[in-house]
Amino acid sequence: MLKNVLASKHYVNPLVSMVYLVWSFYMIYSGMGFFVLVASIAISIYLGIARKLTILLLWVALPSFLILFLLYGLWDAAVTTLRIATIALAATTAFASPKPQHTAYMLYKIGVPPLIAYSHLYVYRFLQLLSYALSEAIDAAHGRGVRSRFKILMLLPIPLLVYTINTSTYLAEALYIKYPRREKTWVDKPGFRLVDILLVLYILTIFILYILGHDLLVLKLLTY
Fold this sequence. Notes:
Blueprint: H1 2-6, H2 14-29, H3 33-47, H4 50-72, H5 74-96, H6 100-109, H7 114-117, H8 119-143, H9 149-155, H10 157-178, H11 194-223
Helix pairs in contact: 2-3, 2-5, 2-11, 3-5, 4-5, 8-10
């Protein structure tokens, strides 16, 4: 997983992804979430994560829809659930679109120490290690004759907690001893590509149309 993230050829400039995130929240707040949804779907397809995001959105949307449906009815539940799914999709695509190396470079350029700038890389690596530990714990439970999923879920927290604490300690000690206080050479620096230009043009176009449409509506109300 980490190798695919670092070596991906499909990515967005970190500055553009941050602008996209702010624009997405503003447009959703303004009731223009449809354009955010279109852009988020297009970005997820470009990044190749659309299938994985579908599972995530279903996991987020279905419980919300059922609870809201019981409390407020079908229409309100559908509208609110769609807004929740749009927010989740926009945030996920915004954070997944830039390369981790590029994000670290941008953070370092604004004064963030490399140890903190690379923190998201540690998270990627740690999640991969946790997935290995989870697989080993499940295999160990099966080897002891435990087949029930409920019993396995009851047995997993303790070994995973011990593994996480031990690994975190080793990681902290290694970073303190070996990690450089300054980064002198950056092999992979961010730049602006065609996808960044297209995304910025889309953001500006929708934002300008929204502002113009909002001003025309206010003018009509004032002159009515």
